[in-house]
Amino acid sequence: MVATRTGPRTGPHSGPRAPRAAAPAAARPVPSEATAHLLELLQPLGRAEARRMFGAHGVYLDGLFVALVVAEQAYLKAGEASREAFRSAGGVPFRYEARGRTQQLDFWTPPAEALESPAALAPWVRLALAAALQAARTKPPRRAPPRTR
Length: 149
Prior knowledge:
By secondary structure, the chain is an alpha+beta fold.
């Protein structure tokens, strides 16, 4: 048997609920030190922002997903055309364990010296932007939710 309440709500939280205000800046999650550093380096190249994802941060430049920061390590998006450039520069791909298997994403570490200045990072970010644009072009379009009548 399910109990149902028949009378008005009572108690300290019985009144109408006020809309939630945005959290003050101090209460918002703070990006990691590596994420903040990468965002700072990307600022001269466009609008850079970080979004939390799965215990890490996804980094977007002008709305394109160009980097991951996981455990204080930056990884830039690569593609068929740029993968070998990252590998030749000593980069390593982002790997993680899932269901007992090692998975690899096409995000690679840039050379350490690239993270020293915006000018040094710029050529690597151009490769990441090209890979992000290619991925966006080949990604199947999102299906619209079914219409309700």
